Amino acid sequence: MSIRIQVASEATTPTRYTNKRTGMPDKEQTAWAFLTERDGNPSPHPTKITLVVEQPYPVGDYTLHPSAFYVGEWGKLQVVPRLAPLKAKA
Fold first, then answer.
1. Which of 36, 39, 61, 89 is deepest in the core (most CB within 10 A)?
2. What is the pLDDT of residues 17-41, one digit of tens each?
3. How far is CA 15 from CA 29, 47, 54, 70, 75, in A?
């Protein structure tokens, strides 16, 4: 099972933060995550999320890329939203 993330618009808004690599403000893009409840059943509604992006993701359906997961400080599993296109079911 994967988490489906839907990008409905390529619109972005600038953040208050500057990207250390580019020296430019980062951008935020709104997306919708289709999650499950604590009992494992699908949530009846998608959850609005904000992605910090250098370039906006095109409109479409995505999932989290394997590189989105990493072990951070003190051995804690962390997630940074890096998206990969969701392959359509045959």
1. 61
2. 887 888 888 899 999 999 998 898 8
3. 10, 21, 11, 24, 29
